[in-house]
Amino acid sequence: MARKKPKVVVKTDEEKYIFGRNLIDAVPCLVKDSDKAKMYESVAELFEELGDYEDAEKLCAEAEKKAEECRALAKKQEEEETGRTQCEIQENKKEGMGIFRKCILLLILVVIAAGIGGIVYLKTEPGRYARAGFYEKRGNYEKSYKMFHNLKDYKDSESRSRECKYEYALQCKRNNMYTQAKDALRELDDYKDSKDQLTELELENIKNSAVGTSVLFGEYKWLIVEKEKGKALLVKSKPINGYPYHENDENITWADSTLRKYLNNDFITETFYEKMSDEIMDTEVVIPDNEKYQTKGGTATTDKLFLLNARQAEQYRDMLSNYSRDWWLISPGNSQNTAQYVSYGEIMDYGYEVSNSNIYIRPAMWVKIK
Question: Is the torsion defined by CA of 15, 16, 21, 27 positive or negative?
Answer without folding.
Answer: positive
